[in-house]
Write a structure and sequence with these properties.
Layout lengths: L3 E4 L7 E5 H4 L5 H4 L2 H12 L11 E7 L5 E7 L2 E6 L1 E2 L2 E2 L2 E3 L5 E3 L1 H17 L5
Antiparallel strand pairs: 1-3, 2-5, 3-4, 4-5, 6-7, 8-9
Length: 127
């Protein structure tokens, strides 16, 4: 059984967490923004995309079976990205920094990195 499972369209919705290169630095900028290559990997792992959600060109709701984290793998105006839930006005995958800003929590980054490498391998990439 694969670590990642597809959920019904829009089930993991939310706000943008990061682009692909933020969790997979092995990708060049060109590779990180290659919409068709990302879609090919997503199709290979999770099947055809469902109906578009919000302004996304394509979107997949995903759950990590190991951690229970849910997220969206999608492509919208800012290119291939990952999104997540907003709980009580806070994005669950972010934490406050000492400087008062926010950053993606390390555990969330690790889940998205593992997913991106898994998708990239299916698309025949180096990630």
């Amino acid at each position: 059984m694969d670590r990642f499972e597809r959920l019904p369209p829009g089930a993991a919705g939310g706000t943008k967490l990061c682009g692909r290169q933020a969790v997979n630095p092995a990708l060049s900028v060109r590779e990180a923004f290659d919409e068709e290559h990302f879609l090919a990997g997503l199709k290979a792992r999770l099947g055809e995309p469902g109906p578009p959600v919000a302004d996304a060109r394509y979107s997949y709701s995903v759950r990590d079976r190991d951690t229970g984290m849910t997220f969206e793998a999608y492509c919208a105006q800012s290119g291939p990205s990952y999104g997540g839930e907003v709980l009580a006005g806070q994005v669950a995958a972010f934490e406050r920094t000492a400087e008062g800003g926010f950053r993606l929590r390390q555990d969330a980054r690790e889940v998205l990195a593992a997913f991106d490498v898994w998708v990239e391998a299916a698309a025949g990439g180096a990630g």
